[in-house]
Request: fold
Amino acid sequence: MTSTWIPGLRPDPHQPVPERISPPELIEAAEREIGVQATWWAAQTAQRIVDEVTTRFRDSESPAMVTGFEREGCEASLLTVLIGLHKQIPSVSRSGSATESVHQSVHRGVAINTVLQTVWTCHALAQDALLTEVEKVVPEQRLVEEVRQLNRAMNGYITSYAGELIREYEEELALWKGRVQAEQLRIFTQLIAGVDPGENAEEILGVRLTDTHLVASVWSRATGHVPDKDGQIASFAHTAGEALGAARTLVLPQDDVTEVWWSWRSAPPSEYVARLRQLTRPTWMHVAVGTPERGAGGVLSSHQACLQAVRVGRRSEVLSLWPYEELRIVALLSADPEAARRFTRAELTGLSDADAKTVTLRETLRVWLQSGGSRTVTAERLFIALNTVSYRVAKASDLLGRPPGERTVETLLALELAHYFPDFLT
Reply:
């Protein structure tokens, strides 16, 4: 096969010509074998192909491998095939141009089928571009043979290239799985310490630090062995991420607690706590949740709020989901446990017994005060009759020795503390 048409390739003068970004040794070999203008044609064509592929996947809302290295791989593929055709040798991928793009795909959690789908689409467009050039210049009597040889060369190259991609992907995935979690935990630790995690943080995390973040801590109160504990935590974390519409979910196990990190491009749903509460969890699993915060500093802020919720959750036994959004006041009041204990006992003198009847009276008064003194709201929340609400509130007030509307703030705060920490009354 002659290749007079290959050195004759020229970039379209009416279209922008980007810089060539293939490895220097490949560009040098291409200039020597097929000419300078043909290498610029390959650069221009690769840019057009990658732009078209990106648009196709975006318009169809299909996943694509977009790491920023696609054009280099496409350009290198074109040059390698053209050199092989010109020298009449098999076009085998030896440049290693796929390596960085595949590594980036692994680090960002792009599946291998998505990588291959993108590569095959680029390959098909590259083959179409070469066939178009062949049809322009090759005489009709040679066209069938030229097309046959071109297709053979392209098929041989993509077979070699796809095999290289898969090997690179599997090798990097094995290495990455071994170190990614440790690296992600290291970066998370830096962020919650207020330290700049470095320029590669987003790549390693797969998270845009400018997004909105929500940190949760998961732990167990079980005294014995919990089978597949890590697996159950990971399953809950990712199920919660889906329920909350999170763009990314990270699970970072530590010694006695597992940190879960959700992120969103904009913000989580306003009812995120209610959605978390609806999810099924093992009875041993306790979850403390921070508040949604934006930016790299938001990771620190959300984690600090989460730590306050953890403190309440470790000390109390009344719940298993501990959202800081609902625990702000209790977390603040209980920061000094002894002072909180003295305050609670002083405010609830007469209503501090541990028997079931007194506990019920305290709970009814607490909900009644939370509801602004509404019997209807209290009855709905506690599933009791209106008259029962009135009776219990009056009885609690008698035991306290003051009307229900007197010292309402102090009474409600003390009731909140007693609800979460019953031992404060002993």
Observations:
- DSSP finds 16 helices and six strands in the chain.
- The mean pLDDT is 89.
- The longest strand covers residues 212-220.
